[in-house]
Design brief:
The N and C termini lie far apart (about 55 Å). The radius of gyration is 21 Å and the shape is elongated. The strands form 2 sheets. A two-stranded parallel ribbon has the order 1-2. Strands 3-4 form a two-stranded antiparallel sheet. By secondary structure, it is α+β, with helices and mostly antiparallel strands. The protein is built from 2 helices and 4 strands; from the N terminus they run E-H-E-H-E-E. The protein folds into 2 domains: about 5-40, no CATH class; about 40-85, no CATH class. Strand 1, helix 1 and strand 2 form a beta-alpha-beta unit.
Length: about 90
């Protein structure tokens, strides 16, 4: 029969502490690393306040096999969609 163990939860305020934890070679649940990450505050309302009716360029039809390198540059994939979010 497979044994299960409760994972120890570690709250990290500093990403540098992560290396010390990893070197212990024990399974853990990590929390707190992204609490101050700006993207945690992003929402439709946030972007509406920040950008209003501004047009923004988005990258579409990115090649999945590119490994993150866009042949021909980013400009080849950028489009300005014809839509606006009104809240």
């Amino acid at each position: 029969m497979l044994k299960t163990h409760e994972l120890k939860t570690v709250t990290l305020a500093n990403p540098d502490d992560l290396k010390k934890i990893i070197l212990k070679h024990q399974p853990i649940k990590i929390s707190g690393l992204i609490k101050d990450w700006n993207a945690m505050r992003w929402s439709i309302e946030y972007f509406n306040i920040l950008l209003g009716n501004s047009r923004v360029k988005v990258l579409t039809n990115l090649p999945s096999e590119s490994g993150g390198i866009l042949k021909g540059g980013q400009e080849k994939y950028g489009v300005c969609p014809e839509f606006c979010v009104n809240l």
